[in-house]
Amino acid sequence: MMLEIWLRLILFCGIFSNALGGFIGINIGTDISNLPSATDIVAILKARQITNVRLFDADAHLLNALSNTGIEVMVSVTNEEVLGIGESPSAAAAWINKNVAAYVPSTNITSISVGSEVLNSIPNAAPILVPAMNYLHKALVSSDLNHRVKVSTPMSMGIIPRPFPPSTASFNTTWNSTIFQILQFIQNTNSFYMLNAYPYYEYVKSNGIFPMDYALFRPLSSVKQIVDPNTLFCYNSMFEALVDATYSAIKALNFTGIPIVVTETGWPWFGGVNEPDATLENAKTFNENLIQRVFNDSGPPSQPTIPVNTYIYELFNEDKRPGPVSEKNWGVLFANGTAVYPLSLSNSDRVNADSSTVFCIAKPGADENKLQNGLDWACGPGQANCKAIQQGQPCYFPDTLQSHASYAYNDYYQKMHSSGGTCDFDGTATTTTNDPSSKSCKFSGSLNSSISGLFSAPAFGPVAPFSGGSKNPAYQLSLVLWALFLLWFCFM
Ligand SMILES: *[C@@H]1O[C@H](CO)[C@@H](O)[C@H](O)[C@H]1NC(C)=O
Ligand SMILES: *[C@@H]1O[C@H](CO)[C@@H](O)[C@H](O)[C@H]1NC(C)=O
Ligand SMILES: *[C@@H]1O[C@H](CO)[C@@H](O)[C@H](O)[C@H]1NC(C)=O
Ligand SMILES: *[C@@H]1O[C@H](CO)[C@@H](O)[C@H](O)[C@H]1NC(C)=O
Ligand SMILES: *[C@@H]1O[C@H](CO)[C@@H](O)[C@H](O)[C@H]1NC(C)=O
Ligand SMILES: *[C@@H]1O[C@H](CO)[C@@H](O)[C@H](O)[C@H]1NC(C)=O
Ligand SMILES: *[C@@H]1O[C@H](CO)[C@@H](O)[C@H](O)[C@H]1NC(C)=O
Hints:
GO cellular component, one term: plasmodesma
CATH architecture of the domain at 22-55 and 153-328: Alpha-Beta Barrel
Radius of gyration: 24 Å
Bound molecules: 2-acetamido-2-deoxy-beta-D-glucopyranose
Protein name: glucan endo-1,3-beta-D-glucosidase
CATH topology of the domain at 22-55 and 153-328: TIM Barrel
Catalytic activity: Hydrolysis of (1->3)-beta-D-glucosidic linkages in (1->3)-beta-D-glucans
CATH class of the domain at 22-55 and 153-328: Alpha Beta
Main location: membrane
Mean pLDDT: 86
Strand content: 5-15%
Oligomer: single chain
Number of strands: 13
Shape: globular
Membrane topology: Lipid-anchor; GPI-anchor
CATH superfamily of the domain at 22-55 and 153-328: Glycosidases
Low-confidence stretches: 1-19, 351-355, 449-471, 487-492
């Protein structure tokens, strides 16, 4: 019984086909005191080799500056504009003429996001959302642009009350008819579902039920694998679980073949005293791992052949945004164009630079005796080069077991993993894509050259966590039950 389950787990964890073409785009919000000029913004995008951007409106300066750059552009109808357009086909036609037809093809506008999380932010407008999308689509048809430009509307996870486990997720029935019409529209027009999915908010509201590593795409130990009890799919990250929850909810309404594009995700790098998870380290880790995951080109477990195209939120910190401190600190760049933290946003950077660098380090808090054994083994039979951690050598400091073991484990792993060496060391080791090197101590596999193409946009940011979240007892209970199930499952 146990063997069978593990075999199935391994099987399921191993299915990843080679779908092609995942892209990373970036949201460009402009609620900034010293907003760079449109030309400067486009220069930054080119320097960072960004291929896809989403604007929260249809700013004429930016759309002009983006012409003849090849950069693909998603423009947005603001929530204020949705109201007028939903009531008037001629308002829709005027919007398309002014904001799309006037720029295409020299500016490569390929999609229109209609409103922002309308069902959560302006629920009263729900009845006119689908009419607005329809009128815009008809205007595109009249301009013969409907094959080039797709229309959809970004939804938050707030309309899926219980996203965990993913297989049982369904849309809030309050929105039955609206969502049904939206999906029908998407299917009829060969468009896609726009999802705003923030593991940051899900993590914060789950009150520690999920490990932080799961929210940050870090490897989970085998005992903590997150497995959907119904499908036995393994979830290596909360991000993938949220995308799959949405695929399940779509399927529950009997729609198939609708791809999901993540229009917003990200992690704030700085927050107020009551926002301890908004740190530079977490933001960097999340975005780095996200990018690596998307460029991997495989989809989430339930849809392995559909890449998870994703727009990161966001290019610039938006200092003028209202709300908690974190709200101003989602950017990967300061308004002056300097990177908040190094981050390579383009696939070509990755291929040239560090596409495959995974480091093996000692797990924080690992048992000291086991660490010592692991270190001795790595430097002995494991044939790691442990010279650099001897007294007087560059990696001697910090003189801790943790640090020395990390160096030795990694040296062993870099040499041996291609021939089957693993990063385990009796459970005391873990892999990471964060280079553990310091200025003086370079870990094997580290790029010692300075990494180019690092970086980090304005608009309506993530709407704060929707209601129906952490305070909802049913939601809490479902999390606890799921967590208990997983524990039982994994120790069986
Ligand atoms: C616009 O983007 C689409 C999708 O990537 C691409 O197929 C097309 O060639 C681009 N058009 C121009 C003019 O760059
Ligand atoms: C569904 O949405 C309605 C309207 O926003 C809300 O009142 C209700 O609590 C939601 N249901 C669940 C289960 O979250
Ligand atoms: C929504 O759809 C579900 C499943 O089809 C059904 O059980 C429920 O009664 C519907 N709710 C409303 C408000 O139409
Ligand atoms: C989906 O299709 C199945 C089988 O045809 C049917 O039993 C079910 O009621 C349908 N569900 C919805 C929400 O239409
Ligand atoms: C792609 O991602 C899957 C799931 O995280 C992983 O199993 C697989 O090894 C990755 N492939 C590459 C080439 O990184
Ligand atoms: C850019 O702005 C950041 C934050 O205000 C500041 O720390 C940095 O020094 C600035 N860089 C340049 C080159 O002006
Ligand atoms: C990186 O390190 C290697 C080995 O220590 C050295 O040969 C090489 O010159 C270094 N490259 C740079 C750009 O510092």
